[in-house]
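To: structure desk
From: M.T.
Subject: fold request, one chain
Message: Could you run this one when you get a chance? Sequence is below, nothing fancy, just the single chain.
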Amino acid sequence: MYLPGMASSPSTSSSTASRSASARPSAPTPSGPADPAAANSATAVPAPAAPARRQPATRPNTAFRRLRGSRSPSEFAAAVRRAAREIGEQVSCDARYIGRVEAGAIRCPNYAYERVFLHMFPGRTLADLGFAPREAVRGRGARERGRHEGDTAATGPRASSGEPDAPEVTAGLFAPRLAETLFHTDEESDVLRRAFMTGGPAALAASLGLGPGPADALATPDLPARAGESEAHAVEQAVRHIRLLDDQHGADSLFQRAGTALRGAYRLLDTGIRRQSVADRLHSGAGELAISVGWLAHDSGQLEDARSHYAEALATARVAKDAGLEAHAFCNTAFLARDAGRPREAVRAAQAGQLAAAGLGSPRLLALLSLREAGGRSGLGDRSGCQEALGRAHDLFARGPSDTDPEWMTFFGEAELAGLEAQCWAALGDFGRASVCARRAVELQPPHFARNRALFTAELADDLAASRAPEEAAAQGVRALDLLASVHSTRIRTMLRRTAARLLPHQREPHVPDFLEGVRGA
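Reply: Done. Structure tokens follow.
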């Protein structure tokens, strides 16, 4: 993908630039050539013509047009927006977008639109809707095919998708690869907010601007002399995309690469920053990135690394006097302490988070922090204290969402509430109540939170196994294993191994042998 003013890659930029400089004449200004000698030279020795760019053929999407039926493009766009709201998505669909799809200009929708279309037409695939496979439209494979078919060099405009080039986002720390991923096309504006990205090491590296090579792009970046708006924006976008990838695919393949991005973000804080507003954004962004990396370490089973990153985020919050970041750091610290077997620390951290969040005006944030406190109290065996904290969490959650809710809390809905309550009852040994809550968490979990769906399914399997329902426990365990085909989480695999240990005495029950075999192969 071509971003104006940005080199295609560290390894090719200098050689490409030198070839371009020797091949191209100086461009004339409106009043004449910038350099007469250069102009005469160009006249005498014409530059070789650039090879013709081969444009992909566009064919109308007749399948999608049939699905629109008798509705006008505007009416159909309104239906798309309504469907998006039903699943908590945000798309700015209008008649122009529908027209571009039907004309074949959009050969594959971004992930936000994909979710909406599949929700509108259940049982159909993207191919049924007339779209091309994603790998044929975007990514390295599409670019490689374009080059073989006579596209311009790697530094030239991207032609594989038939879509316009995107503007430059930032130079320096996160460019060019992060910018390339974040800004595919104009029709992917919603990706910048809520879309989903496919997994695999190559996609993961591209999404974070961390391409493979002897030194990752952010390990030794060419930092600008002074950080500005574009660098702050790039850090914020890196945080968002790490979270999206984690929601969809889990932490195991993401932790090390995200850590490189974090080191680059903290290096930015040591550059000169002219404006206080930019400094505040960079501190908040770096702190949120530290929390994200800490969570990836937590979910990957690297608890001491997680503890270190959360402490780093908390220190950044204190330096920046950012109460929201402080509350977030304490929230995650409480969760980690509970999982690490330090329930008293979990309670203290959750209470400190509630103090930090008291003035932020977000009942949902206070509800989550109350659930963290309940988790710590359940680890202490404090049933009454746990029930009091759970009741407070439910009351706060019932007040509904607010414009002041932090951006990172998109995962916190009824499913998460039920799932965290299930963990409390399980810690107290009440596996009957735990399985009821875990089942509710599975049923309510939106499908795009694949990691959480796998987590709650594994929790349900374990609660059922502990409450002596081996057949259903094994069936739920098999479902969780199926979800782990696209989700990589050490924490979830550990839970399933514990469930397998509970089910060993029940190997003659239906589904149990299949589940045990699956756990051995996971």
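Reply (cont.): The first helix runs from residue 13 to 23. Let me know if you need anything else for the meeting.
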